Amino acid sequence: MSLSGKVAIVTGGASGIGLGIVQAFLAADIKGITVVDRQSALALASDDRVLSICGDVSVEGTAEEYTAATIEKWGQVDIVVLNAGIEGNWHMLHETPMAEYDQVMAVNARGVFIGLKHGLKAFLASPSGGRGCSAIVISSVAGLQGVPLISPYTASKFAVRGMACIASQEYGKFGIRVNAICPGFIETPFSMKHPELLDAMKEKASLQRLGSPKHIADAAVFLASDAGEFCTGSTLKVDGGITNWC
Predict the structure, then answer these.
(1) For a 10 Å CB count at each end of the chain, is N or C smaller?
(2) Which residue is catalytic, options 66, 101, 153, 171?
(3) Cα–Cα distance, 118 to 162 (Å, whole number)
(4) What is the DSSP code string of 2-54?
């Protein structure tokens, strides 16, 4: 699957799943890619196809900046992957501080909404009017079934699936595709904060193992490329069968 001639924006692309997606896009011969994160994408600094922008995805000005910078550098935006997210702390719902709920929703839901808004604007302004463009939101198995003790995170991941569903309906007539990927338990710095949970989830997964960022990245390449041209409004589970135990 090739991404030759295409330009992408990936939020949360400096580490974990986001970094895996960026590396897979580069391997698929992408023309250029803007990596947006709270930290610089040092692992990608040597590749001249990468533009690194530091910023808070929950602030609309950040999206305006990274979209404009991408268009200024490459003259186009064909793919947007909205991956940036935070988990928050683990609490029973009634013990969850509202400040924490607000923070998680700001990054995970508001950040995706803003990214979609400006990505879709860029798609529509392209010479093709959006035809062939692809937006991908990274949800979670928590956005399919819910995960106890992280209700703000669960709410945010249900929200982004809803955004993908509605956007796919609104923009399909322009040839724009919008899909969601729901990763299961993936070995990343983000998830390794809870090794005891990962061990338990490994036992519950049908494949009896954890996933890697590459598994999510391969799904993103498919949805971003022409191979996924008839997929929109889809929720693609990449979870090793963890949701089979519901």
Answers:
(1) C
(2) 153
(3) 17
(4) --BT-EEEEETTTSHHHHHHHHHHHHTTBSEEEEEESS--GGGTT-TTEEEEE
pTM: 0.94
pLDDT digits (tens, 9 = 90+) for 132-141: 999 999 999 9
Cα 131-132-137 angle, rounded to 5 deg: 110
Q: Position of tokens 């998680």?
A: 104
Digit-coded pLDDT (tens) for 223-246: 999 999 999 999 999 987 777 754
Query: Is residue 153 flagged as an active site residue?
Result: yes
The residues that bridge with 183 in the sheet, in sequence order, are 238
Burial tier of 222 (Cβ tally within 10 Å: 0-12, 13-18, 19+):
middle
Q: Indicate the SS3 state at residue 182.
A: strand
Give the tokens for residue 178. 């919008």
